[in-house]
Design a protein that fits this description.
single chain, 594 residues, 8-stranded parallel β-barrel, globular, alpha/beta
C-alpha cells in the first residue's frame, strides 16, 4: 500500500454519518494482572480497598448518568443504569469478598479471574444479548480495576478536535465519554450493530465503522481519514476531490438532522392526509422517556424477557406489577404492548443447578436447533406458572393505562386459545378478589411463523390484534440465518414471498376489523416504508430513535403513489429482480427519500 495514496477500505456500517479528521489510536488493553497473596491479618484491609474502588466506580457512573440525564440521549442513561445495577449484583459484592477471604489472594487477582470465568460462561452463548452482557462486564470490571491500580492514559473525553478514534474495540463507558463536538468518528476491528457502544455512537451522532484491520493501519503513514458510516467505508489519506465531496455530504446531513428534530411533533401523515401510526420498541423500562422526545404514538413492543435476562431470575408478580404500572402511568393513556416472556431457545442462560430458576432450563437441555426449539409461547405453556404470574401482574397494572398483551412465536391457533384460557381465568380470579382491573385487555398474536401467516384467516378470529415480527418471519420463510455470514446474502426482507404474505395478512386483518402493526429492522428502510404502506400497513413499531425518521418519510408520500409502488413490486417472482426494481424506483424517487 502506497503511504500517501488514497485507499478505500470497506467495513461494517455501525453508525451513519460522515466523519472527516485525523487518526488517533486508542488502546484499552490494560488487563495485565500480577498475582499475589495477602497475609490473613490484612484480608479485611484488602476488602476495604475493594469496596473503596467499587464506590469510586459507582460515583463515576452516577456522574456520567447525571450529565446524560441533563444533556444526552435516554439510550445512554439506560445503559449506565444497567452498569449501576451490575455494581450492586452479588457477583461484584458478596461473591468477590468471600473469594478474597477464602483464597487470601489480592483483590486484583480474585477479581480478574472471576470476571474471566463469567466471560467464558457467557461467551458460550450465541445470543447477541449475552455477548453484549460480556462487554458490560468487561467495561464495569475495567473501571473498578483502574481504581485499584490507577494508570496514566488518555481518555476519549480528552481527544483533540476532529479526532478519528482507531481502536481494537470500544466499550460503553469509553464511548459515553467521547465528546461528539471533537470526536469525528470511530473505527474498530471488533464491533456489532446492536452493541452498547454502537447504540451510544448512534445516539451521539458519531459515525462508526467496524471490521477494519487496526493493526494494519498502525503500519502505514496516516495523515487524514474519512469515515463513511452510512456505506461502511474508510478512506485513508483522501485526495482533494474526496474531501470536497464528503464535506458537502456532511453539510447536507447536518441540515437533515435539524429538520427531523424540528418535525418530531408532527403526525406520521401522508401528503393526502392518511395517518400512519408510529410506535416505539423498548427493551428497557428506562427507555419510556424516549417516547416523549421521539413523538411516538405509544409502545408497540416491550420485550419483557429482558426483565428476566438482566437479573438471571424471573421477577415476582409484585416486581412485575410495579414495573408495568410505572410504564403505563408514564405513557399517559398511550398504548403499552407487552410481549410476554420470549425466553428459551437462543435466550437461555447457562445456570448453576442451585440457582432459583435453573430448573426451567435444565429440563430442556441443550437443543440442536434452539431457534426451532422450546422458546416463547412453547416454553410458557410448558411452565404455565411463569405465564400466569406475568398475566396477573399485567392485569393488575391494566387499570393504570392502555395495556395490550402480545404472544410470541405462535405456530398454531390452539396455542393462542390456551393462553386466552389462562388469561380469562386470571382476570376472573382477580375480579372475584376485589382487584380493580381494566374492562378489556387486548390479547394479540405475533406473526413470526409461516404456519400462522398462512392461516391468518383463522388467527384473526382468535386474536384481538396482530403484530408481524419481520426479523423472524423472513428468517423462517426463507430458511436463512441472518447472522450467518455465509447465508446473509440470501436474506431479503423484500422477497416476493414475504410481500405476498404481508398482503394476505393485511386482507384478513381488514376483513375482521383487527389492528395490524409491523416491527423489525427493515421497517426503517426509506424504500421499505412506502412499500409497506402500499401493501396496507398503517401501524409501524420501530426503535424510538427511528420514529422521527419514519414519520419524515411517511410525510413525503401519497397513498396512491405507495400503492403503485407495491403493485409493481408484486409483479416480480425473483428476489433479485425485485431488488433491482426497488433500486430503480428509489433512484427515480430520490428526492422523496432524502
Amino acid at each position: 500500500m502506497s503511504e500517501r495514496e488514497e485507499v478505500i477500505l470497506r467495513g461494517l456500517p455501525i453508525s451513519k454519518g460522515i466523519g472527516i479528521g485525523f487518526p488517533m489510536f486508542f488502546s484499552n488493553d490494560d488487563t495485565q494482572i500480577f498475582e499475589g497473596c495477602v497475609p490473613k491479618k490484612e484480608i479485611e484491609e484488602e476488602i476495604s480497598r475493594y469496596r473503596s474502588a467499587l464506590e469510586k466506580s459507582r460515583k463515576d457512573v452516577e456522574r456520567l448518568q447525571k450529565v446524560s440525564l441533563r444533556d444526552g440521549p435516554q439510550e445512554i442513561v439506560a445503559i449506565l443504569g444497567t452498569h449501576l445495577e451490575m455494581m450492586q449484583d452479588p457477583l461484584l459484592t458478596a461473591v468477590i469478598e468471600e473469594k478474597i477471604r477464602a483464597s487470601q489472594q489480592t483483590i486484583e487477582t480474585v477479581f480478574y479471574y472471576l470476571i474471566e470465568e463469567y466471560k467464558q460462561r457467557f461467551n458460550i452463548l450465541q445470543d447477541t444479548y449475552f455477548q453484549e452482557r460480556v462487554r458490560d462486564i468487561v467495561d464495569v470490571s475495567r473501571r473498578i480495576l483502574n481504581h485499584l491500580r490507577p494508570l496514566e492514559k488518555m481518555q476519549l473525553g480528552e481527544m483533540p478536535h476532529n479526532s478519528i478514534i482507531l481502536a481494537q474495540e470500544l466499550v460503553p463507558s469509553e464511548t459515553i465519554e467521547a465528546n461528539a463536538t471533537v470526536v469525528s468518528g470511530f473505527v474498530t476491528a471488533v464491533g456489532g450493530v446492536t452493541s452498547h457502544a454502537a447504540i451510544i455512537a448512534r445516539a451521539k451522532g458519531i459515525p462508526y465503522v467496524a471490521n477494519i484491520d487496526i493493526r494494519m493501519l498502525r503500519r502505514i503513514d496516516l495523515q487524514s481519514l474519512i469515515v463513511d458510516g452510512s456505506q461502511g467505508l474508510i478512506i485513508i489519506n483522501p485526495n482533494r476531490q474526496s474531501l470536497k465531496r464528503y464535506a458537502e455530504i456532511k453539510r447536507g446531513a447536518g441540515e437533515k438532522i435539524k429538520l427531523l428534530r424540528s418535525e418530531k411533533h408532527l403526525k406520521g401523515e401522508t401528503i393526502d392526509g392518511y395517518e400512519i401510526r408510529i410506535f416505539a420498541n423498548l427493551e428497557n423500562t428506562k427507555e419510556v422517556e424516549l417516547l416523549n422526545k421521539s413523538g411516538a404514538s405509544g409502545v408497540g413492543l416491550f420485550r419483557s424477557e429482558y426483565l428476566f435476562l438482566s437479573k438471571r431470575k424471573f421477577p415476582t408478580e409484585e416486581e412485575q406489577f410495579q414495573i408495568y404500572k410505572k410504564m403505563a402511568r408514564s405513557l399517559k393513556g398511550a398504548p403499552l404492548v407487552v410481549r410476554v416472556f420470549d425466553v428459551g431457545g437462543d435466550k437461555k442462560i447457562e445456570m448453576f443447578p442451585e440457582e432459583q430458576d435453573a430448573k426451567y432450563f435444565l429440563g430442556i437441555g441443550n437443543e440442536l436447533n434452539p431457534a426451532l426449539g422450546c422458546r416463547a409461547v412453547r416454553f410458557l405453556l410448558r411452565y404455565p406458572e411463569i405465564l400466569e404470574t406475568q398475566l396477573r401482574a399485567l392485569t393488575r397494572a391494566s387499570r393504570y393505562g392502555d395495556i395490550h398483551v402480545l404472544v410470541p412465536l405462535v405456530s398454531d391457533v390452539s396455542e393462542l386459545r390456551q393462553v386466552r384460557e389462562i388469561f380469562n381465568k386470571v382476570r376472573e380470579d382477580l375480579r372475584k378478589s376485589g382487584e380493580k382491573i381494566a374492562k378489556d385487555i387486548p390479547l394479540g398474536c405475533m406473526v413470526e411463523v409461516p404456519s400462522i401467516a398462512l392461516m391468518c384467516d383463522a388467527i384473526v378470529k382468535e386474536a384481538d390484534f396482530l403484530s408481524i415480527g419481520m426479523n423472524d418471519l423472513v428468517q423462517y420463510v426463507l430458511a436463512v440465518d441472518r447472522s450467518n455470514p455465509h447465508t446473509s446474502d440470501l436474506y431479503f426482507s423484500t422477497h416476493p414471498s414475504i410481500l405476498r404474505l404481508i398482503r394476505m395478512l393485511v386482507a384478513s386483518a381488514n376483513e375482521a376489523h383487527k389492528p395490524l402493526k409491523i416491527c423489525g429492522e427493515c421497517t426503517v428502510d426509506p424504500m421499505m416504508i412506502p412499500l409497506l404502506i402500499g401493501l396496507g400497513i398503517r401501524e409501524f413499531s420501530v426503535a424510538a430513535r427511528h420514529v422521527p425518521f419514519v414519520k419524515h418519510i411517511v410525510r413525503k408520500w401519497r397513498i396512491l403513489e405507495a400503492c403503485r409502488l407495491a403493485e409493481g413490486a408484486l409483479e416480480y417472482g425473483s428476489a433479485h429482480e425485485l431488488k433491482d426494481y426497488l433500486a430503480q424506483a428509489a433512484a427515480e424517487l430520490n428526492p422523496k427519500l432524502d
